Every structure is written in C-alpha cells, then in structure tokens.
Amino acid sequence: MNKKILISFVFLFFILLLLDPKGALEGSNAGLLLWFHTVLPTLLPFIILTSLIMRLDAVHSVCRFAAPVLGRLFGLDAYGCYALITGFLCGYPMGAKITADLLKEHRLSLKDAQFLLGISNNASPMFFLGYVITQSLDCPEHKVPLLLILYGTPLFYACCTNFFRQIAQKFRFKKQLHACSLPFSAASEAPKPAGRKKTFSFQMIDDSIMDGFETITRLGGYIILFAMI
Fold first, then answer.
1. 66-86: buried (b, 16+ CB within 10 Å) or exposed (e) per residue?
2. d(CA 27, CA 188)
3. Which residues lie closer than 8 Å to 228 by C-beta, 6 or more apart?
4. Are 223 and 39 in contact (CB under 8 A)?
C-alpha cells in the first residue's frame, strides 16, 4: 500500500474517532467482548498445544495416520500436513502461524509454505458453528451446507492447485535433466530432515504459553481495531 494512502487513512480514522467517540467505544467494547468470550477461550489452548508439539518435534507422531492420505492428495510432507490440520481444526490465524514457524525453522520449503498459506487459514469448526452460524446468522439448520462451502472450497482449490504443481514440477524436472543440472527440488529450498524428539522440559511449556499469549493478544488488537472501523 502506498505510504501516503496509509497515512491518510490513519488520519481519517483518528478524526472519525474524535467525531464519533460513542460509536468508537461501542465498537471497541464489541471487539473486546468477542475476543474475550469467544476467541480467547477457544483459540488460546490450541496455540499453546500446537506450539508445544513443535517444540517437542512430535509432528510426525501426531500426523502418523493423516499424513499418508493428505500427503498424497496435496503433495505435502508431515510438517505440511500438520500445518494444514491445525489450520482447519484450530482456526485462524493458526494455519498461517504454524506455516510461518515451520518455514523459519526450515521444515517447509518456500513453495509449500506459499501453497499452504492459501488454504490453511480457516475458521475453526467450534467458532463457525457456535458464533457464526448459531449466534450471528441464527440458522443452525443450514450448518451442513455452510460447512461444506467453508471447508470444501479450500480443499477443492488445494486439489486443483496441487495437480498443476505436479505438472509444473515434472516439466521443470525434465527441463533440468535435459540441461544436465540438479533435480527440481533445490537443496536451498529443501526442508531439514526431522530430528529426534526433544527432551521435555517445563521451559518448553513456559515458552509455549508466552508464545500463545503474544499471538492471541495481537489477534485481539486486530479484532478490536476492525470492530471500531
């Protein structure tokens, strides 16, 4: 975004807050209550547990049964399947957060991280069924088609995208073989092999809790800000 446009938007937002403090307060209260009553209790435990699983390097154990199926459908390894599962079950921003963490730790290639970012950032079933369908839309009788639309769309997109990824990979592989170069998967992009499970310590729990509160607090700030807007 252009810097001048961003500055203009910030000043406009500031002026609107001064002109309508009551509306700003109501929006802020609504965002805070949504974060405190819905997002915090449903998302924070998942953030802490998923962070602890990564610190223990237990991703392969968690995805032992799901990884063969999801890996064949979407062309992902165990780490990519873990990011996909957490993104669907835990809700946003867990899919994007896990994907970013795995990329920083070189457990995912850049191409897989870009692919996952477009499909793994979804609303959690608990949030969607409880807050969106029941409380906001008040149509629990339509939960099945709404769930199919919400989760079927990214899964269908992922299948189609993976199909074209495989075609592009085969084409580039043949092109590189013809040029007598390295295989398609460059060593600089390849994820690190999984190591042995790390020894448990209470410091891991402390780090996971602090990481969870940092993430959930940042998310709360965005919720309050957009509720005010």
1. ebeebbeebbbbbbbbbbbbb
2. 47
3. 17, 24, 27, 28, 31
4. yes
Between residues 70 and 176, which one has the greater pLDDT? 70
The span from the CA of 107 to the CA of 181, in Å, is 25
Q: How far is residue 214's CA from residue 211's CA, in Å, rounded to a whole number?
A: 5
Per-residue pLDDT tens digits for 40-70: 887 888 888 888 888 887 887 777 778 888 8
Residue 175 and residue 219: Cα distance in Å, rounded?
45
The string over 128-146, giving b where at least 16 C-beta atoms fall within 10 Å of a residue's C-beta and e elsewhere, is bbebebeeeeeeeeebeeb
Residue 43 neighbours by CB distance under 10 Å: 23
How far CA 85 is from CA of 26, 67, 127, in Å, comes to 36, 10, 16
Q: Which helix (H) or strand (E) holds 117?
A: helix 110-117
Bond into 93 cis (ω within 30): yes
Answer for the pair 103, 113: CB distance below 8 angstroms, yes or no.
Answer: yes
Task: Extract the tokens encoding 178.
Answer: 């013809």
Residue count (the chain): 229
Residue 177: partners with Cβ closer than 8 Å, 6 or more residues away: 183
CA dihedral over 57, 61, 62, 67, signed as positive or negative: positive
Residue 76 carries which side chain, given as an amino acid letter?
L
Q: Which residue has the tokens 């995208």?
A: 161
